[in-house]
Amino acid sequence: MINIGIAKKYKPLLSDKDAFYAEAEKLNITHKKLNLPDYYHLGNLNLDSNFAEIGESDKFFTTSHLPWNRNLTDYEKNAELHMLSYKKDSVQWNEVKEKLNLKCFTLVKNTQIPGEVAGVHMDISSGFTFKTIEKEYEDFTTSDLKRYIIFLNDWTLGQIFMFPNSNVIKWKKFDIISFPWYMYHATANASKINKEILLATGI
Predict the structure, then answer these.
(1) Stated pTM of the model
(2) I want to staple 86 with a disulfide (CB 3.0 to 4.6 A). Which of 66, 76, 92, 131 is the partner?
(3) Does the 10-202 domain belong in CATH 2.60.120.10?
């Protein structure tokens, strides 16, 4: 995965709403001009750990989860994901750490039930930046930040992961993709079964 642009310290950038979105918009325009792919398919991880837990229900798009207010549509305010965070040094966390060669990261399982939609958005990674990051890594930059999606079940008709110029479908269990921190995306589940993914964010 390539994070384009000049590396900037992520933590102070995230603390300034206007600067953050300006940088993201600039990079999205450059990304499109360079005709770079929206995401990269990295193969299949073939994980051994148990990811069967559902996790607790949590509102996905609410202002309480953001460091600043945003204009939200009603469906964004009401969108819901079941979320489960895996603790550092758990079996699942350690396996993903080893296979992705990460030093410091968060690992979250998102379960999207049938009928749910997560509208177009950009993940700001505040949970990693302000809550999880270890002292020795706190000065990480935009070039260091990595985002991975690992699919936990085979694709079925009606499930989709959307980027500005491409859509992800027909994935297999444990397929993995990566995408830049500034990339807009959306997800939907119009199937009859849950869509389950792991989201790994870190350096």
Answers:
(1) 0.90
(2) 92
(3) yes
